[in-house]
Amino acid sequence: MSDFDNLVDGKKESVFESKEVAQKQAERLFNKLIEYHKDGGILVYINKILNNNYYYIKYPRWKDLSELMKLFFVFQFGEDNSFWALSCRMSPSLCEKLTQKRNPEDFLRRRLNANFKNQLGGILQYCFTLEDLKNDAHLHGIIQSNVDKEKLKKTLKRTFLGKNYRNSSINNFCIRFEQLYDASGWLVYILKRNSFKIKLFPVYISRELNRLVQNKYQQLKGLK
Questions:
Q1: Residue 40's CB: how many other CB atoms inside 10 A?
Q2: pTM, entire model
């Protein structure tokens, strides 16, 4: 029997006035602890929480997780499935266009998806956040790796530098891929935060990646 099975009914449930109160307290502890987590895989850390007797009645529902907690799961899923860590710079004209948009992440998402469809035959699984739009705009995130790397690089250059990307002064160093081997470390770097108390940057998660991560979480909860 797993730790989860042992803790389903909560060993100290009687100290709370009801099961519902116990569950709410467990969720608060879960999110509070996870927000200060800086080392080790997220799934390992969940086991630590359970083994340290924070007495879950059940895992929180996906919609009850903090935004940061959801991101940890997204990035851990990326590491487990050999995603690439991705960094991209973009042309001044695109930067200017993004600063004029009410929702620059959505604008860039549409642009990316259109190029993925046209150049690669379908939309990829990815997640990104935009930084420093007014100065040296760039993007950090993760993206699936089971595609031709050179084709993907050209598609990203077309997205961020335009159709004439070969003439750009940053053509040779605007895209950087690395194997995602430390999900929580990469997320901490992207958010540029020593403390998780600071408000998150806007983050876009592709629909398919979001679906897969939620399914994985449901499996962890034993609900699927």
A1: 12
A2: 0.73
